[in-house]
Amino acid sequence: MASDPQRKQGRAAALPGAGPYTLRPLLHDVPLSADGNDEDVKINCVDYYDGNLYVGTSASELLHFFRIPPDPSDPSGPATFILASRLPPVYSEPAGGIQGSRPGVQQILLLPRVGKACVLCNWTVTFYSLPELSPVFGATQVRNCNWIGGVDLNEGVGQGMSRSGNEKAPGVTILLSLNRRIQVVRIGEEDARVIRKIDFAGSTLSVRRDSIACVADSRSYALLDVDRQLKIPLMSISSLDDSQPDGAFGQAQNIAGAAEGGLSRSASSATARAPANALGHSRSTSLGDFISGMRRNDRRPGEPDDPVFQDSDAPPPSRSPAPTDKPLPAPPREAENYLAAQAAPAAPRAASPAAPPPRIATPPVQTATTPAPAATHAAQTATPPVRTTPPPKPGSVFLKPHIVSPTAEEFLLVTGTGPLDPGIGMFVNLDGDPTRPTLEFDRYPREIAVDGGATDLSTSRLSLAAEEEGYVLASMAKEFEDGLHHGLEIQRFDVNIGEDEPEKWWLEVKDSAPKGLSPSTPIGIRPLLQSEEILFEDVVDRLCQRRFSPFKGQPETPTMSLKSSDSRTALSLQRLSQEKELFDQSDDEKLPPDWEEQRNQEGEDFVRRLARTSSRLAVWAGSHIWWAVRNPLLTQLDSALELAAASPGQQTNPGALEIRRPLLSLLNTIKDREATTELEFMTLGYIRQKASVMLLMSFLSSPEPPFTEPETRAMEENLVSGDLDARVVLSLIPALRNEIVVNRRGIWIYNGVRSTVNSYISAEADGFPMQGVSSLPSHVLQFLRRFLSAWRKKKGFGSIPDEVFRTVDASLLLVLLELDQDTPSGQTGKRGSARKELYELVDHGVDCFDRAVDILETYHRLFVLSRLYQHRKMAADVLATWRRIIEGEEDRGGELGDGEQRVRSYLSNISNQALVQEYGLWLARRNPKLGVQVFTDEKGKAPKFEHTRVIALLREEAPDAVKYYLEHLVFDKGNTSYVNELITYYLDIVITDLQASAASRDNVAASYDTYRALSPPKPTYLRFLTDNAPPSDEVWQSRLRLLQLLGGGHDYDASAIRQRIEDSLSALPASSPPQLAELDGNTPTDHQHLLVPEFIILAARAGQHAAALRLLVHRLGDYDTAVSYCLRGAAALTPSGTHYRDQPHQRRDTDAEPPPRWTRDEQTRLFRALLGEFLALRDGDERAAQTGALLERFGGWFDVVEVLGLLPEEWPVEVVGEFLVAALRRLVCERREAMVERALSGVENLRVGWEFVGVVEEKGAVVEEGATEGAAAVVVGQGE
After folding, report:
1. Per the UniProt entry, what is one GO biological process (predicted)?
2. HSE-up of 1038 (CA within 13 Å, CB side)?
């Protein structure tokens, strides 16, 4: 109901409950008259304390009702009030009073601190005890009283110490507004005494804070210091009243009546004339400055206490105030603009003449000895003098004053120009200075009340509320199209609205009143002395948790047929039924039969403890009384949601802007609001959930995407942050409803949200065929994609049951699969794409594993299924899924790529040897070379296989892969024990190809012819063969490896291999070329023509060097290899000798010994044989060239004479010129070397002889005498 009814004429009342206040029954059908004829009787005032309700009527009766609490078995039931007594208060008929003008009971003032009540009835005050209303103080009366009140609002109700911390007062101080003065009266338990008299005549209203009272007479407001008797005149009640002197406003005046300060009295109040030495008065001089900040609650020293009924000698008042219930005077016919009136309040205004206010007689002051109530009227024989007010100027209007105190330092005063014109509320502090921006009332109010604020401790608020909001409630009448309506205008007073128009609410009683109460019935309002606790059952109903069933009609399982147009839906239904049975069996928790009812009751009790509020505002109209209760935040916000749902476009266009904009605005308003109480926390969560659900229903019901991207994002954010169970959201989408998983305890959500969702689900047409996810539009799928992805981030929260994430994962998987159908086959997807998110979903694991497997199988997404298995470490299932894809089963994503290579890599990362063996053999059957890598992987995690076992397995399961494994053993591991077997495999491949294909034979022969045709210098034939062999041709590659093994010096049976080649190729047709005629009686066979390099190596291995040279020279034309063979022997045929090291598997095992090299004699013999082969070449030019080159390079191995004997006589000498020159040089060199050698030998002989002579001379001769006499021997070199 956040609307201004004055701007929307014709709309008398907005949606109930939308404003900050609502009405709750306090007492209906009050018996206003004893005889039941209460048509002319009305309620004047109401008060309440300690279960006792007091109602004053215009029939001069005080009704006392006693409250009976609700039945303990039904704590939410209403309380009952019974009539305890009907008291006619004693009053005195004022002299000169108008017959029949008695207003009745005008005020009820309860003073629980002293157990007394003051009642103002027909301008007579009487005193009673509480709560039974027995007369006290000897039936004391105070006549001619206009107002009773002025109780210090800073003192707590019923407390013995004031809020300012003063000592306990002996009683309660009140103010009695008599015609000629204000009496300050202290009410005690035993008596009531006047402690002070204030010379302020004609006051009709007073509100007090500490010693400062804000009072009003019939024309103006003023501030009084009741202790020091100081006054600050304030503004006039009516802006049209210019009878007040402008200079008096805001000036502090002494009204104590001292002799030194003269008093100048106006028609409304006395204004002090300052002496010559007194301080000058100005607007800045406030009451607080005048009294130097000192305020006292005690009277001045020496002032005697007077009985409350003592007569006064003061002059009579200038006028009598109008009764509070008198009708307001008629306003001017045409009032000028209100802003102009506020700018110039004293300016005269042109207005039509108005009827002057009625003359009000001033009742006499009661004497000290008041007669008994029965003799009151008889005792009145004299009429005291009565002064009437001067006739008002034409156009002046008397308005009822209104004073309330919203805070401990402020008063709110209301001014205006007329009863039908707007009113202005002005805030002043205790010094009379303005404090806040003014308030504007659409009409001058009949009554006002404030509720809340920073310092109001007894407001109508919810329990445990934090910072309290402050409201002003004004009773007034407004014109609508259907007539005059009385109601309450409500607005905040504690906010600064700036230049914006203030927000106002309009509240009427017709929606809360029984039938028969007219909207034109005046409404009264006032704060009561004590508040009452009230329970909001509608809040309990909305916030309590209730079990929610996502299926239409709340079936245990979906009731639709499993035969659906979408096979995936049928699988979902079947799975749901099976899972429910499984969960019911596996759920170990034993639930009592009445567990649901018990939980419902516990939830209601919990919310009831929070959904209580207290109120102290009473509203009455006719014979009915209500509590004006602060509306809970939930009710206000929920009403706004219902208003949006009731929009006219809801049926025609559910996604219309006028529907979603209020919802989004409301969500944005509470987005950053921090909850300060538990109830507020629940309220904000409830509103977020319900508003988000309503947005989603609008989003889903629109035929096309109506929401903008920011609006959609806002809806998603609130759905996630509102903590609404994701299964509730999915229940709104029939295509995903059957993915919801529910345990035995069910889904529990706010009852208000449940009702909204159930209404949407129940609106679906009966028999509506269930459609699959493929039927959802793109914008819904994109919404679900983001929403469900955001929900998955909550995994790990202990407060969320596992069933939620199982539902979320299954639904998200379905949505992503639908969105991914447009992705081209084979692509892995870019970042942010549906396929990438699909991979991330399965790679991080899903809680609904079995359901995910079914979904992926249904969508034929086997590769995604394999990734799901990988997350679960289910290696066997991963490999089995890949095998299905590789063997041709449909995989619509096509993401596997090179499946065999992926299998091979995956096998190296698992430790299960059995799986490695199974899929290694399977891979070897499909791709032998790749499959063998599984068994040869050195970095694999599985235990290593024995070589013999692998060979046996491969021979049995994948024979084609044996060769590759043997290659690994021989070439990579250097295991020569398998060389013979590997050579056999290579021979089988080569020979089988030659036997089966004539083209292969021709290609082999053509390679020889091509090589021979090359011009020198040319590479060796093995290098030529390596460079020109097709890399993808298995036969050629096998032949290269065969040559590598044959020439590698391995220990193998060369004769057996030669025999096998001869036997295998002997049946081939002869194709001996003519150039290979008989040479030395040997004619090459056909198998030698085809496998020339092999036979050369085998011949060298068998010592048939001449045959090897013959094949090298005549068949291959590889002259360089022939020369190298003469120098190095068989080593020239090895890979190192033919630059074969560039080929794979080049490793040589240490067990393979290199072929032996020749001695000098063997080399000479081979060179002579090679010379013979060169001389046998048929091409003369080539013969001469190769012979000359051989003799030139290696002439040292040849005898010149022998060579000259072999050379044809017709060859020119140039052919062997270099050889002959080198030979002659060699002969000359040898001769000269011999001469030098002989000379050196002679020199050596001379040196030795000289050394001998020198030794002899050094030693001298030695003569030895022998045994024969006369004989002597000379020994040279011996000593003396």
Report:
1. protein transport
2. 20
pLDDT tens-place string over residues 1140-1180: 334 444 444 434 444 556 688 888 888 888 888 888 888 88
- Nearest-10 Cα torsion for 825, 831, 832, 835: 30
Strand 624-630 with 205-209, pairing: unpaired
Q: Can you tell me the distance from the alpha carbon of 743 to that of 802, in angstroms, rounded to the nearest whole number?
A: 9
Which one, of 992, 988, 987, 1003, lies nearest residue 1068 by Cα? 992
Q: Span 905-915, mean pLDDT?
A: 93
Cα separation, 231 vs 271, in Å, equals: 8
Place of tokens 């005008």: 106
- What's this model's pTM, rounded to 2 decimal places? 0.69
Give me the helices (H) in 646-750, please: 657-669, 678-701, 709-721, 726-731, 734-737
Partners of residue 21 on adjacent β-strands:
630
Q: CA 870, CA 864: separation in Å to the nearest integer? A: 10
Positive or negative torsion for Cα 1056, 1062, 1065, 1071: positive
- How deeply is 793 buried, as exposed, middle or buried, from its count of CB atoms within 10 A (0-12, 13-18, 19+)? exposed
Burial of 400 (0-12, 13-18, 19+ CB in 10 A): buried
pLDDT digits (tens, 9 = 90+) for 439-493: 999 999 999 999 987 545 455 555 444 457 899 999 999 998 888 999 999 999 9
- Contact at 8 Å (CB) between 1094 and 1042? yes
Cβ atoms within 10 Å of 333's Cβ, excluding its own: 11
Distance CA(796)–CA(967), nearest Å, equals 54
Q: For position 352, what pLDDT does the model report?
A: 33
Tokens of 525: 């309002």
The whole-angstrom separation of Cα 1121 and Cα 1020 is 6
Residue 1053 CA to residue 1058 CA, distance in Å, equals 9
Instruction: Give me the residue spans of the domains in the chain.
Output: 959-1066+1086-1136+1157-1217
Q: Are the beta carbons of 274 and 260 closer than 8 angstroms?
A: no
| Residue 957: exposure state from Cβ atoms within 10 A (0-12, 13-18, ≥19) | middle
- The type of residue at 223 is L
1241 within 8 A of 1233, measured Cβ to Cβ:
no
